[in-house]
Amino acid sequence: MTISPVQPRAGRFRPLGIEEVTLEGGFWGQRQELTHSAVIPHVEHWIEKTGWAANFDRAAAGTLPAGRSGREFSDSEVYKLLEGMAWEIGRTGDQHLEARFQALSARVAAAQESDGYLNTMFGRPGQQPRYSDLEWGHELYCFGHLIQAGVARARCYGEDLLVRTAVAAAEHVCREFGAPDDPRICGHPEIETALAELSRVTGDTKYLRQAQQFIERRGRGALGKIFFGQEYFQDDTPVRTATTLRGHAVRALYLSSGAADVAIDTGDDELLTAVSNQLTSALARRTYLTGGMGAHHEGEAFGGDFVLPPDRSYSETCAGIASVQLNHRLLLATGDPVHADAIERTLYNVIAAAVAQDGRSFFYTNTLYQRVAGDSPDQEEPSPRAASSVRAAWFDVSCCPTNLTRTLASLGAYVATADDDGLQVHQYMPGTVETTLAGGRRVTLRIETDYPYAGSVRIHVVQAPEDWRLSLRVPAWAQGTRIWWGSHEPVSADPGSFHIPGTGESQTGLAAGDTVTVELPVAPRWTWADPRVDAVRTHVAVECGPVVMALESTDLPAEMVRQGVSDVSGVRADPRYPLRGEGKTVYVPVRAHRDTDRAWPYAPTATPEPGESDDVLFIPLIPYHRWGNRGPATMRVWLPEVPAASAQLRQRHTEASP
């Protein structure tokens, strides 16, 4: 059995598991080690400190509701931790972690009732009845995360106590909600993809049928009307007829992931096309430069098309994780590299930014413009969830830290795929890829790279058959990529997929002992938004490969502070001058907008802007994922342009238009 989070019954590509892809150092290998040494122990500490794990002990002892702590969905945080631990044990074989996993699993299992129901918030004397609050109660959502933890354990280990607990819960769900005329659904999708994956693990199609029922019931008004509108729950329009992602971002992406699972495993091309079109629309019109999704703090929701304000970006970490999950499913189903591009952008910006360098504090939201430095949160008490100026050790709603454990531990599964013809490398991470193709043909690759900070990727073919093909993703931003192997001269590779045949297809193809070199253009570049994104019109950003750069007030030079620029709001970029790259830092040419004292912030004449006589300074930008690690600071990704540069660039663009 492949050890991976997703194993569809059909599709263009076959996923490779964490036993087939080993990350070794580099950007993501280091983060996996940080997850093992710091993130997972930190999360374990907090679920004990908050009493969320102890809720299961109270349930088993029959003392609830007295002493119960946490929100109605706090059970799910324990389940997500268990899933992360399961993947990490599968990846490392750590026996000390295995003992902790078994102990926590036993506490969860002890709270399960005889009919399979398991929830510490509902169903006992003094609590609300079971399923009495499907809009907000999260019971099926919690079951979904329990089942996904069981799936991870089954794939990494085989049957055990947690797997049996998850299966019993799924059986309960099917009995309770399986009647064809039952309209009930959960306010927070999650159960759908969990049941589909359990069906794949067990081979029992009953779970897939139940997932399918939940998908088909959605969008028919089963949930109550609320202030945010029924689109908050994606209960306003059936999945098949929706045209884009809308409402609560995490809910929307989880629902789409479940719909994709059902569509793929049932051969429902209409449903798969609907999900694919919705995501394509959201990527084109409702996604931040960082890959983040969710523009509204109110409702944690998508905005309308091109409504992407940087200072009000919610861009929840869990939405980034859900985007990776959905794009991965559609990559496997269709083979379209646009989904691997979206995964890459989200990983290097949202996911990487969400964890502090020490692995012990986290962002819940991922703003693109922090106007006020704020104060460092108390690292001994949970923080309000929407704080984004400084990472917090824990939150009252801590879905993001626990979600990160399962994502980072299973990250190897997103690197490469296979089909009957060969192997496809989608993400450039140093390590080893080894798998067996159809007919018992073994392929082993060793990847060396300092990507994304350097653009050179060397792929050593350690073992390969004659009749195979290596496919490499060329990112959409990577115009000018060059690839060569053996005695070949470098060739230009357009964005998309680049294919190299094996020796059975061509005398100049790939064989064991060959090395493929990919040179990706990761030099810093200016980036402008679609003019329909009102919030950043006449602004410019800087990217290096897949990495978005940011200005942090910590790096403002003394000259700017003396000119009255006390934070990043007074900085104007001047794209007429070239960017300067230096390691992990980019130096951007800027001019300062001097502060003026006014009694009224509006005037009949334009505010004086930097002129040609003002000195141009080169100030440092850092990778967005590194911001916030040096204490409270202001930060921005999009920099206003110097007006003269704006006019000049507009003229140039107009002249270049057909």
Describe this structure in words.
The protein is α+β, with helices and mostly antiparallel strands and 658 residues long. The chain folds into three domains: 14-414, Glycosyltransferase (Alpha/alpha barrel), CATH 1.50.10; 416-519, Immunoglobulin-like, CATH 2.60.40; 524-597 and 607-656, no CATH class. The chain is 35% helix and 16% strand. The chain has helices spanning 26-49, 54-61, 74-92, 95-110, 139-156, 161-177, 191-202, 205-217, 249-266, 269-285, 317-334, 337-354, 399-409, 558-562, 643-656; strands at 14-15, 21-23, 369-370, 416-418, 422-425, 431-437, 441-449, 456-463, 469-474, 481-485, 491-493, 496-501, 515-519, 524-527, 539-544, 547-552, 571-573, 580-582, 585-592, 617-623, 635-636, 639-640. The strands form three sheets. Strands 3, 14, 15, 16, 17, 18, 19, 20, 21 and 22 form a ten-stranded antiparallel beta sheet that branches. Strands 2-6-7-8-13-10-11 form a seven-stranded antiparallel beta sheet. Strand 18 and strand 19 form a beta hairpin. Helix 2 crosses helix 4 (95-110) and helix 9 packs antiparallel against helix 10 (269-285).
Distance between the termini: 55 Å
Give me the Rg, rounded.
25 Å
Number of domains: 3
Mean pLDDT: 93
Shape: globular
Largest sheet entry: 10 strands, antiparallel
* Total beta strands: 22
Count of DSSP H/I helices: 15
Unreliable stretches, pLDDT < 50, 5 or more residues? none
Determine the structural class based on helices, strands and strand pairing.
alpha+beta
**β-strand amount:** 15-25%
The CATH top-level class label of the largest domain: Mainly Alpha
